[in-house]
């Protein structure tokens, strides 16, 4: 009886052993090159996962944002335990910085992740607390982000160096095309048409890169600090709309601010063009296409 039992155990062990072996054989044959291990990149928002995915395409890297889609507000986001798990298992993590995604930083600190980290605003942009945190509207900073990320990916996963370099080269050409478009709009600006009023600072980096001057800084600052702009600031903006001192009004359609809506109505009533912008990347579009779209809209408003 004992002997039979022992035989059964041995037979079971053999089955388990064979099972494991055939499984591990299977995974090595399906994963391609021997040294290849899929790396995990976690970003705070889907703007950054979109950019990183352009560099990793053709490899088995997993690039995952914590926030995706335009329904969640990155300024006020509550991550889950599952999000912490993603960070623990990451090889590279990417955050905006400047307090924009402070929940992400807290999440990282709550884990013992060994991931390399890129904080775009501070590590690449050399920006300081109090600077405008909507840095993805800064096309030249995003271009530098592509270059830095490519280097980091190569450090982490040198087996795919050639693919990362080839992808980055092609992607940077798209940035050059976008920059040429920006320069073209810039060449049509003069002292007479370079002023704009804005509902908040979300698109300022792009506007300033084109050469626009934010005319209602005082109003904008109050909004950014979540305080009430003065009645004088509001009245002045309306005057600017009516006198066409400004070329257009930049309106964040995602802000859900009654005052911003009210100002957009006033611009409309004064027949002043409105440039509608959003905080997060519209669904089903790439970063480059999104920014190109905004620049095209600006170009149309200027004609
Ligand atoms: Zn914002």
From TrEMBL:
Predominant location category: other
Subcellular location: Cell envelope
Signal among keywords: yes
Lineage summary: Bacteria, Bacillati, Bacillota, Bacilli, Lactobacillales
Transmembrane segments: none
InterPro entries cross-referenced by the UniProt entry: Bact_metal-bind_prot9, ZnuA-like
Top-level taxon of the source organism: Bacteria
Name used for this protein in its record: ABC transporter solute-binding component
One GO-annotated biological process of the protein: metal ion transport
SUPFAM superfamilies documented for this protein: Helical backbone' metal receptor
Source organism of the structure: Holzapfeliella floricola DSM 23037 = JCM 16512
GO MF, one annotated term: metal ion binding
């Amino acid at each position: 009886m004992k002997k039979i039992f022992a035989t059964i155990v041995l037979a079971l062990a053999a089955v388990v052993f064979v099972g494991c072996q055939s499984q591990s054989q299977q995974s090595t044959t399906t994963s391609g090159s021997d040294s290849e291990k899929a790396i995990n990149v976690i970003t705070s928002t889907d703007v950054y996962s979109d950019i990183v995915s352009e560099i990793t395409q053709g490899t088995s890297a997993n690039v995952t944002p914590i926030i995706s889609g335009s329904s969640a507000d990155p300024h006020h986001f509550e991550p889950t335990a599952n999000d912490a798990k993603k960070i623990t298992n990451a090889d590279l993590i990417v955050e905006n910085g400047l307090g924009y995604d402070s929940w992400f930083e807290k999440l990282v600190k709550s884990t013992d992740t060994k991931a390399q980290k890129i904080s775009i605003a501070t590590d690449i942009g050399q920006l300081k607390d109090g600077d405008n945190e909507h840095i993805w509207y800064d096309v030249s900073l995003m271009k530098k982000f592509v270059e830095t990320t490519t280097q980091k990916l190569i450090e982490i996963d040198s087996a795919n160096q050639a693919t990362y370099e080839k992808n980055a080269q092609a992607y940077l050409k798209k940035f050059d095309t976008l920059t040429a478009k920006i320069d073209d709009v810039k060449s049509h600006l003069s002292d007479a048409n370079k002023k704009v009023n804005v509902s908040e600072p979300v698109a300022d980096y792009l506007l300033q890169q084109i050469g626009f001057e934010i005319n209602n800084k005082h109003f904008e600052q109050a909004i950014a600090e979540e305080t009430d702009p003065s009645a004088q600031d509001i009245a002045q903006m309306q005057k600017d709309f009516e006198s066409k001192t400004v070329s257009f009004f930049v309106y964040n359609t995602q802000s859900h601010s009654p005052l911003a809506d009210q100002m957009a109505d006033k611009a409309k009533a004064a027949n002043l063009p409105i440039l509608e912008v959003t905080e997060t990347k519209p669904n089903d579009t790439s970063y480059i296409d999104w920014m190109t779209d905004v620049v095209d809209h600006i170009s149309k408003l200027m004609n």
